[in-house]
Amino acid sequence: MRGIKVKFRYAAVMCIFFLLFSCAEKRLSDKTPPGIIKPDKMVDILCDLHIAESGLEHKGFYGDSLDIYINDYYFAIFQKYGISKEKYIKSINFYLENPYILEIIYRKVTERFEQLNSEKWD
Predict the structure, then answer these.
(1) What is the per-residue pLDDT across 11-39, written as a single tens digit (0 to 9) for each?
(2) First to last CA, the chain
(3) Which of 16, 54, 36, 17 is nearest to 92 (CA)?
(4) Which tops the pLDDT comparison, 94 or 18?
(5) Do the Cβ atoms of 87 and 45 come closer than 8 Å?
(6) Helix (H), strand (E), coil (C) string for the chain
(7) Cα–chain-centroid distance for residue 49?
(8) Which of 56, 46, 19, 61 is nearest to 113 (CA)?
(9) Exposed/middle/buried for 91, CB within 10 Å: 0-12, 13-18, 19+?
(10) How far is residue 29's CA from residue 117's CA, in Å, rounded to a whole number?
């Protein structure tokens, strides 16, 4: 009987945690200042940027040669999302100054990559 109570309490605490966490994520998007890329769009951009960097590194580009090619990839990604380099830098600086939000963004980036990885092997 005691085990059931512990499991029930654990389930209740987890439900409350997820409810609060999901509400916090919604509020973050609503409170993004003007001129800053919204968190959900930032997830998409960061995923594409990391894939581009990884692809170039996989092809053997490092150091100066990586810097030359990565700028072209970054430009294409910024165009894809309709943003400028300046807006991206302003946004990433905002998120660096707000690590709680950045942690949520990167948690979603990680989840996306885990999903892509599992789809690859299924």
Answers:
(1) 443 434 444 455 445 555 567 899 999 99
(2) 40
(3) 36
(4) 94
(5) no
(6) CHHHHHHHHHHHHHHHHHHHHHHHHHHHHHCCCCCCCCHHHHHHHHHHHHHHHHHHHHCCCCHHHHHHHHHHHHHHHHHHHCCCHHHHHHHHHHHHHCHHHHHHHHHHHHHHHHHHHHHHHC
(7) 11
(8) 46
(9) buried
(10) 27
Residue 65 has pLDDT above 80, yes or no: no
Token pair listed for 106: 């990167």
Query: What pTM was estimated for this model as a whole?
Result: 0.71
Asked if 38 and 30 count as a contact pair (C-beta separation under 8 A), the reply is no
Q: Give the residue extent of every domain in the chain.
A: 1-31, 33-121
